[in-house]
Amino acid sequence: MTALSLEAPTDPSVNDWIALSDTELPVAAAGEWIVRPNCGATVVFTGTARDHAGHRTGVSLLEYEAYEEQVIPRLRALATAMRERWPDLERIVLIHRIGPVPITQAAVVVATSSPHRSAAFEAARFGIDTLKSTVPIWKKEEWDGGSSWGLEPQHITEIS
After folding, report:
1. Cα–Cα distance, 29 to 6 (Å, whole number)
2. What CATH number belongs to 16-144?
3. Directed axis angle between helix 117-134 and helix 68-85, to 10°?
4. How far apart are the C-alpha atoms of 30 and 142, rounded to whole Å?
5. Contact (Cβ atoms closer than 8 angstroms) between residue 98 and residue 65
6. CA distances for 19 relative to 31, 35, 51, 93, 149, angstroms
7. 30 SS3 class
C-alpha cells in the first residue's frame, strides 16, 4: 500500500496530513492536529459507514478499493487547490480508508483549520466533495439481499 503514516506529522512546518489506510482512521487525532494558536476555526468532517443507502436497507458493510498509485498525488493536488482558494487555511487533513469498513466506522476524514470559520467550513466542504469526484476510490456495499460495487457510475474528473 502507498499509504503515508497514520501518525500525525510532528514537523511543525508540515501543514498537510494526507494518507490512505486499511486500518481504522485517527479521527480524534486529526481533530487535535489541526488546532493552531492562530486559528479560531476548525472543521472536521467524518464520513462514516451507515446501515442504509438510498432505498437499500440493511447495509452491513462497506468496502473501498483504490487505484493506490494515484490516490496520494491526487490528495496532494486537492490540498494545493484548497490552499489556492482559501489562502488562510492553516492545516488540512485528507485521509481515506480502503478495505472493509464496518458500520459506524470512519471511511474518510477531511479536516481544516483557519483563522475564521467561513474558510474552514467552505474548504472542508470543497475538500470532501472534490475528493469524492477526483480521487480514484470505489465503494462496494453489502446489504440485505445483495451487494454491488458502485450502483451509481462514478467518473473520475480533474480538480476544477
Report:
1. 9
2. 3.90.1170.40
3. 150
4. 28
5. yes
6. 15, 19, 25, 8, 23
7. helix
Contact call for residues 48 and 108 (beta carbons, < 8 A): no
Which tens digits make up the pLDDT trace of 7-27? 999 999 999 999 999 999 999
Sheet holding 91-97, edge to edge: 16-21, 91-97, 106-114, 41-48
Q: Where are the domains of the chain?
A: 16-144
Identity of the amino acid at 128: I
**Per-residue pLDDT tens over the stretch 65-109:** 999 999 999 999 999 999 999 999 999 999 999 999 999 999 999
| pTM of the predicted model over 0.70 | yes
All cell numbers assigned to 103: 458500520
